[in-house]
Amino acid sequence: MAALIRDTGRGNEAAILNAALDAFGEKGFNGASMRDVARLAGTSLSNLYNYFPSKARLLAEVLRWANDELYARLRRAVEEAGDDPAPRLREAVRAYVRFTVEHRVAMLVSMGEVRYLHGPDREPLIAARDATEGLFADIVAQGAASGVFRTPYPADAARAVVSLCGSIATWYRPDGRLSMGQLAEQHARYCLALVEAPLAA
Amino acid sequence: MAALIRDTGRGNEAAILNAALDAFGEKGFNGASMRDVARLAGTSLSNLYNYFPSKARLLAEVLRWANDELYARLRRAVEEAGDDPAPRLREAVRAYVRFTVEHRVAMLVSMGEVRYLHGPDREPLIAARDATEGLFADIVAQGAASGVFRTPYPADAARAVVSLCGSIATWYRPDGRLSMGQLAEQHARYCLALVEAPLAA
Amino acid sequence: MAALIRDTGRGNEAAILNAALDAFGEKGFNGASMRDVARLAGTSLSNLYNYFPSKARLLAEVLRWANDELYARLRRAVEEAGDDPAPRLREAVRAYVRFTVEHRVAMLVSMGEVRYLHGPDREPLIAARDATEGLFADIVAQGAASGVFRTPYPADAARAVVSLCGSIATWYRPDGRLSMGQLAEQHARYCLALVEAPLAA
Amino acid sequence: MAALIRDTGRGNEAAILNAALDAFGEKGFNGASMRDVARLAGTSLSNLYNYFPSKARLLAEVLRWANDELYARLRRAVEEAGDDPAPRLREAVRAYVRFTVEHRVAMLVSMGEVRYLHGPDREPLIAARDATEGLFADIVAQGAASGVFRTPYPADAARAVVSLCGSIATWYRPDGRLSMGQLAEQHARYCLALVEAPLAA
DNA sequence: AATGAATGAGTCTTCATTCAT
DNA sequence: AATGAATGAAGACTCATTCAT
After folding, report:
1. B178: DSSP letter
2. From the CB coordinates, do chains C and A have 3 or more pairs under 8 Å?
3. Which nucleotides of F are covered by protein (CB under 7 A)?
4. Do residues B42 and B67 share a domain?
5. Which residue, among D155, D182, D154, D153, has the nearest Cα to D168 in the 3D structure?
6. Does A187 touch chain B (CB under 8 A)?
7. For position C158, which CATH number holds?
């Protein structure tokens, strides 16, 4: 479970972002204090404000990083999957599951703490999340159009797919029964079944 | 969206529980203050402590009520659905979706705020949640045994079903495009598809 | 260590007074709450106010009972000791020590918590305490006048005697090395020595 | 009555410690609020917590300072008194009385409020207090061994001496009848008499 | 970029006390 | 005499944030 953010080219910034990710992941946005973040980042409380003007902005930045990374991975996975909707959906789901498992806290924060953002910090995040969901929506639409996904709800099924993959973060434990690979495999099948694609027996 | 808790036979208790549900639902456990709860309940801050010894205990009680109600509804729905696994799953999912829509905040709190509970308040809740999930697990197991659910992952699919239904709470808005009935219908089909039951074309 | 206050002929009054004594003894006047007292007395919080109009008054009553009892015991001991100052002092000290040991918390409260009393509750207590000290002052004065106590400070030595005996309460433990009898014996000798009375070799 | 703690080399620390000493001295540990301390120290309530993590810890630090200072003074006094037990005891008592008078509240707090300390804050204080008493115990033992103190209770008399000197704090008023010098003189004699040393007529 | 000290508003919780029954 | 419910003030402590250095 490597750190999500590697380097930003600006002093302690990456350490602070990763610390915020951990803190918000463990205690939630309101439960974690700036002192918690500072402690995890190994810097002083007041130094945080040299990088981010407020706690909300810090959360916003963390979420932006997480979403950008997830989006990039999904794009890459889909591109490498070729043109057919079924393998595209399969690979997108597998990538999503892998990201969820590898960066569970990032996913948790991303799903749960956005609602504590208001004003100008909020909308870019919502847009980014919609873009991520849009990737799935496109695949489902393509599959429905070509007749290979026979779900009667092609306009809504993508949301179900995304919800299903994201919810793994709420219960997954690294020492659990299922490996990341098994989880990815299972969910790929769940999602193909959900959109009513033909399945190998 | 009627109040979840009607009356407990003890002074202001029901009003406080419902107020806590609303407050935790809107701002999260850590974001909502006991003052918020008191204001919503129409009583004084200190009077809260005549009913619940701590904020955590208050949350625990709220969650217990929500889970008990959900569990009871699911039981009833499953019983009335007869013996075949497919209609049983269909009715369970529909009941779950209806509960999620009608008591969205209860569901949100139930999914998101349990992790702020520790010590003796936590375990009964986890057990109750497992019991709810167990209802679905039984149905899936029955369907898999009888061959009507052909999912290769009968031991894990119930969790996916529950996650899928619960996640509605994170995005549903009463004024959205889909009615509760449509939502229930869609998810019933998603879930039957997910466990690879035969579907009417 | 029997309860200090036996019965007052008024419902739960004695139980409340003894409970207050214990509570104030253990946690101090400000550290103990009326709830603590109620719990120890086995009654309800609000019922306390049927007997005593305020926490301060409750403390005042407790102190009055303790002082009255101590004063009575000292009077009796002195009277039974005859007319000579040396045996009178000896018996007074022994009685004081015995009371301190038997009702340690009463003594602790009496020494330490009076200062939290103000207004009309305070002065009667101070007067009662002065009366107790006056008993010793009289004996020392008598002994000095008759030449048997040769202390150069007859006007001040009584205070030292009283302080010395009372301070036992601050360190005495029932399971300690010294029995009540030994303690009484030792202090009788300390005090006779302090006033410079002739001592048996 | 100069401030007990001069400077600690860390911001407002000395001011806070002295303020705590005054506040606890006047109202007791439980009667004084952290706001009281802040007001006396001329700083904000929250700033207190930049120096001491809790009220109990603040009390513990205050007590440590007071005990260290007392112990140092006693050591010095004893060392300068030469080798004979009688002058050593005399000078130790005088130093103790002077400290009690000069830092009455420190002594009061030290005697009365230790019992509100629990856990790891408590034991170092008890040990320090025992060390102080140990100084007197050594002197009494030495005097008893050399035959100049003829008390039959050499193992216990030191406690009486310490109690006697400390109790001055409970009644002393700066505008009272006796000066500090007189008080020191009187108690030196009380204590020598108490251990049954030969006294100048 | 980095820190320690500082602050005012806010947190949960407990307090002594009152009131209706 | 006795209780359970209620309350406003106050308790210790933490918060996000700022400022001087």
Report:
1. S
2. no
3. 1-20
4. no
5. D182
6. yes
7. 1.10.357.10
Q: What is the pLDDT of residues A69-104, one digit of tens each?
A: 999 999 999 999 999 999 999 999 999 999 999 999
Domain that holds residue A186: 55-194
**CB proximity A86–strand F (7 Å threshold):** no
The CATH number linked to B42 is: 1.10.10.60
- Flag whether C104 is in a domain: yes
pLDDT band at D63 (very low <50, low <70, confident <90, very high): very high
Q: Number of A:B CB contacts under 8 A?
A: 81
Per-residue pLDDT of chain B (201 residues; tens, 9 = 90+): 568 888 888 889 999 999 999 999 999 999 999 999 999 999 999 999 999 999 999 999 999 999 999 999 999 999 999 999 999 999 999 999 999 999 998 898 888 888 889 888 899 999 999 999 999 999 999 999 999 999 999 999 999 999 999 999 999 999 999 999 999 999 999 999 999 999 977
Q: Best residue in D111, D132, D163, D183 to probe C by mutation, most C CBs within 10 Å?
A: D163
Query: Which 8-state DSSP code applies to residue B164?
Result: H
A100 with A172: CB under 8 angstroms? Answer: yes
Amino acid at C103: H
pLDDT of res. B200: 77
Query: Which DSSP helix (H) or strand (E) runs through A69?
Result: helix A55-80
D neighbour chains, 3+ CB pairs within 8 Å: C
Report if residue C42 sits inside a domain. Answer: no
Alpha-carbon span C173 to C184, nearest angstrom: 14
The pLDDT value given to residue C59: 96
Protein residue at shortest CA distance from C1' of F10: D33
For residue A126, CA distances in Å to A30, A55, A132, A163, C117 come to 20, 18, 10, 15, 63
pTM for the whole thing?
0.93
Residue with tokens 């393509």: A142
User: Residue D1 domain-assigned?
Assistant: no
